[in-house]
Structure formats: C-alpha cells, structure tokens
Amino acid sequence: MTESGHLSHDPFATLGLPRRFDLAEADIARAHLRAIALAHPDVAGADSEQLAAELNAARDQIANPESRAESLLMLMGGPAKGDDKGLPPAFLIEVMEIRESIEADLADDAVAARAKWGAWATTRRHEHAARVAEFFAKSPPDLAGVRKELNAWRYIERLLEQLDPAYDPNRADFRT
After folding, report:
1. pTM, 2 dp
2. Rounded CA gap, 91 and 151, in Å?
C-alpha cells in the first residue's frame, strides 16, 4: 500500500514483496494474508472491498510464475510481448516437429498421447521457468533473454491447453 492507503499498480509493492522472480509460494501467501488483514472493513472502512479486490488480483498475478515474470519484466523496463516476439534459437522448428509427432500419436491413441505430450510440455514449462530465473538473476538482468523465454513458455502453455481433453473443439488445433 502507498502512504495514501491506496494500492499501487505494482503487484509486488501491493503485497509488500521484493521485486524478484524467485519468490516462494509460502512467502506470497503470507504477504497476502498480512495485507488482506489491513483490508478488513474494521480497518479499511468503506475502501475494504476495493482494497481486497486489488490485493487478490496482485496475489493472483504473482502466484502464477509466468504472470509474475511478465510483471517483473515490465516493472524492470523490459520488452513487452507485442514489442519483441523473438524466440530461443531453433525453438520454432522444434515445436513444429513436436506438433507433427503429437498429431501422429493422437491418431494412434489419444489418451496415451495426451498423457505423454502433457508430461513433456510440463517438463518444458519448468525448463523455461528455470531459464527465466537465470536471466533475472544475472547482473544486470538479461531482460531480452527473459522475453524470449517467456515467448517460448507461452507456446508451451498454449500446447498444454490444446492437449486438455476439455479443450473447446471449435478451437482445436489437433485432430482426434
């Protein structure tokens, strides 16, 4: 919270957390609980509902590692999604080849293919998160490297969405 009692647009500041990518889930939860207590109607009065909504939005933004990285990158002055669509070398070719393999596997056994490729994509998600952490940890942080990894990470998240059996068939990118 700012001195005026209003929350800033910086989700880290909103929860009183340092601007770091490597925040522990427990620290985020603890900071949220501490801040939400200040938004109680007995403390915040008429502003309590708005304050609680802003605190919850800040928690949601930082609790998700991908959106935490996006927020941190923007706060550090890094390139926005629309400004830099670059990807790590050979990433796009790899993803295109993987999609062909997924198509073939789905045609053979959709259930097994979804499990196999879902596990692969989950592992890749963790690899991108680790590389994002490495880029943020550099001195100075490699913001261009973070952007490229976030762009690739978004591809993997989209792939996981598409592998979900509940994925909207009107938007499906894979034939089953």
Report:
1. 0.84
2. 10
